[in-house]
Design brief:
- The two termini are 26 Å apart.
- This protein is 31% helix and 14% strand.
- Helix 6 packs across helix 16.
- It is built from 19 helices and 15 strands.
- 40% of the residues are buried.
- It is an alpha+beta fold.
- Strands 1, 2, 3, 4, 9, 10, 11, 12, 13, 14 and 15 form an eleven-stranded mixed β-sheet that branches. Strands 5-8-6-7 form a four-stranded antiparallel β-sheet, with helices on both faces.
- It has two domains: 481 residues, 2-Layer Sandwich (D-amino Acid Aminotransferase, Chain A, domain 1), CATH 3.30.470; 76 residues.
């Protein structure tokens, strides 16, 4: 069996990723910047920048001649200048032809079916997973979290019953009704059905949905709609949102019985309209109603939320990261009784409607350092918070929530080698310092019209592209994903390479799985087959099927490598082997692989 040496595309051998030249253009820290915000111990000692080229460039660097570099396409203006500068610094050429199928990178604001139909796995990079709506629409996220909560509850119930029959106390019991369950306590059938649940439990107790997600009801579901209309009373404020809109479009508040009655009548008339039944695609966008957080924490009397990022750098295997963003403030002081939505919605699109925005726009965006200093100075002693609460407790809670949301949809996402994504996640902190996830957004705003955004956005985009390229190349070459030399400020939330490798029947030290050999002449239809070998005692053994790949062992729940002697490295960064595309083209090599990542 030959050791895998898959041929990476020519464009993968150009300039090293994250080079100082391109980072200098975009005001980025170098790979050796020791002041970068790294996860606790995970990035303790990254190799020098020179090793990045040595790892990724196995062949002599041959920069393409003028006008001969690979093509990239950018659809829309969101972040276009940053992405274009990044690609051109690598010698790539921009095409304006949206129908071009020979691109090496395609970054579009709006997803198009043709882009995914013509996508060549293992040869191209394509921004946005095709069904990221499972996370980035209000209904998609709501349904995913509900199902995750339901199955997790069923798993824990089964585990408690199993422990009760054994007469054992569940691991993680605190004596106060809070229990966590490890891999060994989970029934095998449920582990196979929802294998990623134990992964969350290994890191800590799985959060209950109501602990971080406001109470929400779907208006396109009759039972949920009626339940909301029944429970509504004027002592609580609710907010109504379209499932897939952004920038505050289509949002309104519900405070009175009259407003709710009008919504009820409109929703019912839409449902009864026969034209929408015949052509449902013309029906208005589905909506949700969500309980409004009426006691938000205020900064200088203004409402704010925090935009953070979930980066899916690779989908085969999954490599998922957390990135810090910034705080978004309203221009006006918070008044819960105000009818002006710009005092309730913090995004820049809403704030730009104010005539004061041009003069005060720098006040509408705070860096995470600024937010941390303000909370240290104004709330640490009063509320008894730990020092640097923003970078300790708050950051860990955001990471925990984002990881749980990803795990809730991991098995359903469409994934191919070359897909990557950048998702904006909006969090709100209430006056009791409880953290709420409001929503997740595809194609988050990448504009840099404020100084803080100029410091955050270019670095985020560059590191996302660097990681997408490095993980892409490593997956092609069957190299260990970790450590990632282009990882600077992003924090690893989930590595799925162990899951994918085990499903393909590989091991850490063995070469990449090879495709099955062609059938022998004796195995062709109509050919005479030799008698099967005799087993012990003279009995005929069961004939094996030539050319059939041995079934790999089932991966442990959540990607756990149960039964393997190796232990994870310190700091939680657990290198594991990736699958190999084998010989031939990358697309051919992966035909026998599972279409799911990890």
């Amino acid at each position: 069996m030959r050791r895998c040496r898959a041929q990476a595309p020519v464009w993968a051998h150009e300039r090293p990723m994250g080079s100082r030249r391109e980072e200098g253009l975009l005001h980025q820290p170098s790979l050796l910047d020791q002041d970068a915000a790294l996860p606790d111990t995970e990035d303790a000692a990254q190799p020098p920048a020179a090793l990045l080229e040595g790892l990724l460039l196995e062949e002599p660097k041959q920069p393409p001649g003028a006008g001969q570099g690979p093509l990239f396409y950018i659809g829309g203006t969101n972040g276009a200048a940053i992405i274009s500068s990044y690609c051109k610094n690598k010698g790539w050429r921009r095409t304006q032809d949206s129908r071009c199928k020979d691109y090496k990178l395609k970054w579009c604001e709006v997803k198009c079916r043709d882009s995914y139909c013509s996508f060549r796995e293992g040869e191209q990079l394509l921004f946005q997973l095709p069904n990221n709506r499972l996370l980035t629409t209000k209904i998609g996220l709501l349904c995913a979290l509900r199902e995750y909560s339901r199955v997790e509850s069923k798993v824990n119930t089964q585990a408690r019953e199993t422990q009760g029959r054994r007469g054992l106390e569940p691991e993680g019991c605190t004596g106060q009704g809070t229990q966590t369950w490890t891999l060994t306590t989970l029934p095998a059938a449920l582990s196979q059905h929802w294998g990623h649940l134990p992964e969350q439990n290994k890191r800590g107790r799985t959060l209950k949905m109501e602990e971080f997600f406001p109470e929400t009801y779907r208006l396109d579901n009759r039972d949920e709609r009626e339940a909301f209309f029944t429970l509504f009373d004027e002592t609580q404020m609710w907010i109504c949102k379209p499932t897939a809109s952004n920038q505050g479009k289509g949002i309104f508040l519900l405070r009175s019985q009259e407003e709710v009655a009008a919504l009820q009548a409109k929703t019912q008339s839409t449902e009864d309209d026969p034209s929408y039944r015949r052509m449902p695609f013309r029906a208005p966008q589905a909506r949700v109603v969500q309980r409004y957080i009426q006691n938000p924490l205020l900064l200088e009397g203004k409402k704010f939320d925090v935009r953070s990022y979930l980066v899916i750098a690779c989908a085969t295997p999954y490599m998922v990261f957390f990135a810090h963003g910034y705080a978004r403030l309203t221009l006006n002081l918070y008044d819960p009784h105000s009818c002006d939505l710009s005092g309730h919605l913090t995004n820049q699109f809403m704030q730009k409607k104010s005539p004061l925005y041009v003069l005060l726009k720098e006040d509408t965006v705070w860096s995470m350092d600024h937010l941390n200093r303000y909370i240290n100075d104004n709330f640490r002693k009063v509320k008894g918070l730990p020092r640097d609460w923003v970078f300790t407790t708050f950051t860990k809670r955001m990471q925990q929530i984002m990881a749980q949301c990803f795990l809730a949809v991991k098995s359903k996402l469409e994934c191919k080698l070359g897909y990557f994504d950048l998702i904006g996640c909006d969090f709100l902190i209430d006056e009791n310092f409880k953290v709420w996830l409001l929503e997740m957004n595809s194609n988050p705003a990448l504009h840099t019209n404020c100084q803080v955004l100029k410091e955050v956005i270019p670095g985020l985009v560059v590191e996302t592209l660097d990681l997408a390229l490095e993980t892409f190349q490593k997956s092609l070459r069957c190299q260990k994903m970790l450590p990632l030399l282009s990882q600077r400020r992003l924090v690893l939330l989930h590595s799925g390479e162990a899951d994918l490798w085990r499903r393909l029947g590989g091991s850490r030290s063995s070469p990449c799985p090879q495709p099955p050999p062609p059938p022998r002449a004796a195995d062709r239809p109509g050919a005479r087959r030799p008698a099967p070998p005799r087993g012990p005692g003279g009995a005929h053994g069961r004939p094996s099927s030539p050319g059939r790949r041995p079934r790999p062992p089932d991966p442990g729940p959540g990607g756990a490598r149960s039964g393997e002697p190796e232990r994870p490295r310190a700091g939680g960064r657990n290198p594991a082997p990736e699958p190999s595309p084998g010989t031939g083209t990358a697309g051919e090599a992966r035909k026998g692989a599972s279409p799911r990542g990890s």
